[in-house]
Design brief:
The chain is mostly beta strands. It has one helix and 23 strands. The strands form seven sheets. A four-stranded antiparallel sheet has the order 1-23-22-21, with no helix packed on it. The protein has a four-stranded antiparallel sheet with strand order 9-10-11-12, with no helix packed on it. A four-stranded antiparallel sheet has the order 13-14-15-16, with helices on one face.
Length: 291
């Protein structure tokens, strides 16, 4: 890995879509390991109004105002569409759990809760559910994201809530006032959604989880990251564990535009500015950084 990939860099001549509309129209295509790289049209979704297309951890779904169609479903995410809550606008898949968001801002979860990633409290530790259950205490949620065994969401006011596995610091609940050992005990497993205190005075506009790390863009346009960063995906070098959110970028150094959206892969991160510039950093073994 080249050293610069551990630090954010702007993809030359990048000019991506600004402010895309929520609703999408057009054909849906599937491709990946199951199709051996071939692009296959999803005829069931042709001509439909699309609210969302989601994929992760060997599952994929197409969400329309009338239905949810799983074009691929990992057995660990097993659920019948009839067991999902109505008015869904988003689904996020973890390694063995899933989250769902309704148009009214409620959050549901199902799957395995070994590390508290379902957000259902102590009972979720031993729970494997194939039926979506509402997570209490969360309301007016606008965004969801799921890591390997942790979960995150964003409220309409910009507060960040995280829960689940925190061994690598990915929930961001560590305190500077405590020792590392004390933080490890308190943050290893978060059974219920908890507000990340670092952003109480810094409202967030976008959130995304990698397997064991989390990245956000604040409404003022700064990017923060925390968790495991062995491939440079946090944006400040190779980091084994970052338990407290740390600022990565303030704004685009070329245009001065604020960052408005972030997205995490397995070991890399992307950040988009309001001007359409795209930054990337982290693992580049397959050219995923765009250079």
């Amino acid at each position: 890995m080249k050293p610069k990939f551990q630090q954010p860099f702007r993809i030359p001549n990048s000019n991506f879509i600004k402010n895309p509309k929520n609703n999408m129209f057009g054909d849906v295509f599937n491709f990946g390991a199951d199709t051996q790289g071939k692009i296959i049209s999803d005829l069931n979704s042709r001509g439909a109004t699309l609210l969302n297309i989601v994929a992760g951890y060997n599952s994929a779904a197409v969400i329309t105002p009338e239905s949810v169609t799983f074009t691929k479903l990992n057995p660990k995410h097993k659920i019948s569409p009839s067991d999902l809550p109505p008015h869904l606008i988003d689904i996020q898949f973890g390694e063995a759990h899933a989250l769902a968001l309704t148009s009214s801002g409620d959050v549901y979860s199902w799957g395995t809760g070994k590390f508290g990633q379902l957000g259902l409290g102590a009972k979720s530790n031993a729970l494997t559910s194939t039926k979506a259950q509402q997570i209490s205490g969360l309301s007016k949620i606008t965004q969801l994201s799921a890591g390997r065994a942790h979960s995150a969401c964003l409220t309409s006011s910009g507060d960040v809530f995280t829960w689940g596995r925190g061994f690598e610091g990915q929930t961001g609940h560590a305190s500077k006032a405590l020792t590392e050992e004390q933080n490890d005990v308190l943050t290893a497993v978060q059974l219920l959604p908890k507000c990340v205190s670092a952003f109480v005075k810094h409202p967030v506009a976008s959130i995304s989880c990698g397997p064991d790390f989390t990245v956000v863009a604040t409404k003022k346009g700064a990017v923060y990251a925390w968790g495991e960063g062995g491939s440079g995906q946090l944006g400040f070098g190779r980091v084994k564990k970052q338990s407290i959110p740390k600022k990565v970028l303030d704004k685009c150094e070329v245009t001065g535009k604020r960052f408005c959206k972030v997205s995490c892969g397995w070991g890399h991160t992307l950040a988009l500015t309001e001007g359409g510039d795209l930054y990337s950093w982290g693992l580049n073994a397959y050219g995923q950084l765009g250079e």
